[in-house]
Structure formats: C-alpha cells, structure tokens
Amino acid sequence: MQTATRRDPATPADRTATEAPVHVVPRARADSGSSEDVPSPLKTLCSTCHLKDLCLPCGLTGSDVQRLDSLMFARRRVKEGQALYHEGEKFQFIYAVRSGTFKSVLTLKDGREQVTGFQMAGELMGLDGLAAGKHASAAIALEDAEICAIPYGHLSELASVSPDLQHVISRLMSREIVREHSLMMLLGSMNAEERLAAFLLNISQRMKARGYSASEFHLRMSRAEIGSYLGMKLETVSRTFSAFQQQRLLEVDKKHVRIVDLDGLTHAFEMRVQ
Amino acid sequence: MQTATRRDPATPADRTATEAPVHVVPRARADSGSSEDVPSPLKTLCSTCHLKDLCLPCGLTGSDVQRLDSLMFARRRVKEGQALYHEGEKFQFIYAVRSGTFKSVLTLKDGREQVTGFQMAGELMGLDGLAAGKHASAAIALEDAEICAIPYGHLSELASVSPDLQHVISRLMSREIVREHSLMMLLGSMNAEERLAAFLLNISQRMKARGYSASEFHLRMSRAEIGSYLGMKLETVSRTFSAFQQQRLLEVDKKHVRIVDLDGLTHAFEMRVQ
DNA sequence: CGATTCCTTGAGGCATCTCAAGGCAAGTGG
DNA sequence: CCACTTGCCTTGAGATGCCTCAAGGAATCG
C-alpha cells in the first residue's frame, strides 16, 4: 500500500480537500467501499472546477463551458488498486481525473501486462473505447482518486451544436495519438537511460503544469509499473535510478525523486550513441 | 527501388488502373513529376469509390455520403520515396490512401528515425496533426501512390451538421489510439519472433480486407523500415524471417511472403515464454 | 558493366534479462 | 510490544537475445 506517505512536499492528493471548489463530499460516501460501482450523486460544474484550464473545458469560451455545466458530470471515488473500468467493458463514459493517479493497462492472453499510460489530474481516460464500443484497456487507481464520469453520448450531442467543443474533443484525441507516437519512439529506439530520463522529464513537466514542483515529486507507480510502461524490467529501472543518482542527476529515495541536474537529465535523454 | 516487381499475385498498385471507378487519369498527369506539390484538379466522389467500405464513408448512409461527395476531394499522386507531408508542416488536410502504401515516420533531433505506421488503401493519414495544428509525423510513399486530400476544415463543418459523420471520424481517431496501444504492447513486451509474427498477421488481415490473398503478398517496405517499426535492427528482421522459413511457417523471397502455416505463425505470435 | 541498394549470414560483444539473496518499511497477530 | 509476514526495492552474478561490425550475394540502374 502506498497511501498517505509522510513528508511529501508536492502531493496533489493532499491538497485536493482544500482546493476542490465544487461542493463538499458528504462523510458517508467518503469511506464507502462500494462507491466505485454506481456514480456518486455528486455533480460537478466545469465552470468552477480548479482543473478547467487543464481538462476538457480548456480553451472553451463561457457559453460552451456553460453547456458543459448543463451535463452535471457525476463524480466518483475510486480506491487505490481498484479499476475505474475494465478491458472489454461497455464504453459509455469518458473520465476526467479530478485527483489521484491512474494507470492504463492492456493484458495479453498469457497474462503479460503492458502499462500504456499514467493519468494525472485534469487528464482524460477512456477515449480508446470509442473505436469498438468497449474499453480497449483497463484503468486502475494508483492511489485513492476521484474522477468525473462524462457520458459520451451526451457529450457528443452537445458537441454537435458546438463546433468549438467538438474541436476540443478532437484535439484531445489527436493529442493522445501524438503522445503514443512519442512513446513508440521511446520503446523503439531508446536505451534504458534515455527511457527513464524521458519518463522523468515528462512527469516533471506535468507536475509543473499542475502547480507542483517540477524538480521534486512523489512517483505514484511502482518500479514494475514504470518498467512495463518503458519496456524494461523492474530491476533495470532500479539500476537506472541508481546510475542517475551516482551521476548526480537525481536524488532518489524509494518513490520520492528530486531532480538535481535538469540539464544533465535532459542530456541523458538525448544521449545519442555517437 | 521497389517498383513494378514481377510476378506479384496480389499487388494493389497493379490493379488500381483497372479498378478505380472514378474518372480516368489523363495521360499528361500520370507521368508528371511535379504532380505532388499542387493538388490535382481531379476530384473524387466517395459514393462511387471502390474503397468506400474501408475508408471514411464506411458505415455512413446515403445522405451523409452525398454530403461527403459535395466536398469533391482532390486527388493527388505521390511518387515513390516522396513525402505527402513533412513533420512540422501546417495541418490542413487529412489524407486517404487510394492506392499504394505509405509509411509514417518521426525523426529525433539526432537523426534517429521511428516508423510509426504503414498505411494501405482506404486508410487515413494525418490525424495526428490536429493536436498542434501541424503534422507530428511525415508520410512517405513506399511506392507510387494516389491519395484523396480531405480538407479538415470543410470536413469538420460537414461533421457539425451530421452527427453520424462526426461519430465516424471520432471512431477512426479512437481506432488509431487502439492501434498504437497494440504497437506499444508489441514494443514493450514481445521478443523478435513475436513482433514479426504480429506484424505479418496484421498485414495479412489488412490484405484480406482489401480483397487480396491473406496468405501471399508483397511487402512494400524494406527490412530497415520493418525493423524501425518493430523496434529491432534490420539484420534481426532478416534473421527472424529466415528462422520462420526454417520453421516452415513462411516462404520468403525478398519482399514476397507466403504464409505456409497460419496457425503456427499465430502460435509464434503468442509464444509465451513458459 | 560498374555503382548502388538491399538483403543475408556469421562472429563477437554488450545491454538487458533472469535468477537469487538480502534489506527496509508497514501491517498483522499473538 | 515483538515476532512474523508481506510487498517493494536494491544489488550481484551469470545467461542470453539482440546488436554491431563485416563480408558477400543478388537485383536494379544509369
């Protein structure tokens, strides 16, 4: 279990309770174990959400955001280790992360797993389900999390009367394609150090975009999950962390990472094998 | 050069001239070297296209297809080795392959290339450009090819009055995401034999969907391009082809491939390392 | 017909994997 | 409160799959 880690200078989850401007979660639901089956009756308004500049409404004008408000997205809590949706499950919603971190995983018939992404606050999940009408991957919470469930049918109705909204959705899907391109680049033509450097720099940027420190953060995922995502074994991930530490690029203590030499790390990422 | 290869039982390019039902390419243009800079004045109607069940109009009803017809997509020839668009180029069109084969490539600053996909007749290219308004990859013709240039602005105008069309476009983008998921699976957790087997089975299915033999086909891409796509070196691709041949799964003669034992190949694809 | 490109194959090297042992922190139960 | 378990991480040593380098063959082209 990786809950409630102490002394964390930049933990999204810790800040959520005080930052979330939309309603207050009733005590009764907060600790309910069965809260992941039925969407919570709590509703969320995009217009007052602290994530509106990162999430779906990003770039939309007032009238479009108000249209989104009319959908009153249901909020839902997902406990650490639990699935928001499973591979093969019927596609009805896309999900926006409100707090916490998720991993998206594919499973091969023989049980081999591939982590295809990590999602943080403000990021969308489930867009892969549109293709076949069922989710192509599973989404698992890496810590206690909260999401907005966005009914895709309603969203696309709304998009049909608002070209701007439609454009935002299309751009988000395109961004997902581009993101996967760069991961393919990584998996196809980088060595272990480049992969881990690229990963850490990416996390760093995303933390920064969320108002947290870009140089010091807590990883929510295990070495094995990082390894799966980066196409390497957990031991190699661990060794590469140690190597970076010896090169004075990082200070690592379990899941706590401090980037000591950003330029050096960037250089490791571009370490062309000349 | 890999043009006009002899004795090819299933070559899309060879058949295009007789199959293409839409207009006839005037002699003058057919051999013009400068035809890839300016969209050809030739226009294409989806409703009469022999690819309509594979391509954009797939699943649409008559009225929506007629709306697509009204856009009169420009046709354009691209010669082998030439780029349909470059990385970083302004995004204005998405492209549908009419005939020929393309590769999509990303280039790293140090010159390393990653092939992110191969596109055949009826498949769309360029959807990754939407995210940032410029193409995130380049598209290079692997043989003389013909495409439809679909102006994205017009298409999305059309989509705003036709929910079905919008849904088709969204589904195609989602399909691209799913496709990249499985490539990540491949790059992240498969060995050389599994990768090549997966690749060949995928090509086989796509050939079949286009009315060609699923068991015998011509590869339009080089060993180096296959290697880049699959995250391995060209020598390893070559050796793996040889290994499959020795295992009596394939018969390989340069770019001509005959699948002898489909089940065996499928099994190699699922070769769990027990 | 030489130049070029692409493919195949061999031999040796190396990055990463595999297997194994041990440490640390947190949780559990007596 | 302590012994024990469990999960995760680190590190070492040896194995190996793929890469690198190199040579040679076959087809194509000007």
TrEMBL record, chains A, B:
A family per Pfam: HTH_Crp_2
GO-annotated cellular components: cytosol
GO molecular function: DNA binding; DNA-binding transcription factor activity
Chain residue ranges for the region called Disordered: 1-40
Domain of life, per lineage: Bacteria
Domain HTH crp-type, first and last residues per copy: 190-263
PROSITE patterns (UniProt xref): CNMP_BINDING_3, HTH_CRP_2
InterPro entries: cNMP-bd_dom (IPR000595), cNMP-bd_dom_sf (IPR018490), Env_Response_Regulators (IPR050397), HTH_CRP (IPR012318), RmlC-like_jellyroll (IPR014710), WH-like_DNA-bd_sf (IPR036388), WH_DNA-bd_sf (IPR036390)
Gene3D superfamilies in alphabetical order: Jelly Rolls (2.60.120.10), Winged helix-like DNA-binding domain superfamily/Winged helix DNA-binding domain (1.10.10.10)
Alphabetized UniProt keyword annotations: DNA-binding, Transcription, Transcription regulation
Record domain Cyclic nucleotide-binding: where: 56-140
Entries under PANTHER family matching the protein: CRP FAMILY TRANSCRIPTIONAL REGULATORY PROTEIN (PTHR24567), FUMARATE AND NITRATE REDUCTION REGULATORY PROTEIN (PTHR24567:SF75)
Protein name: Fumarate/nitrate reduction transcriptional regulator Fnr
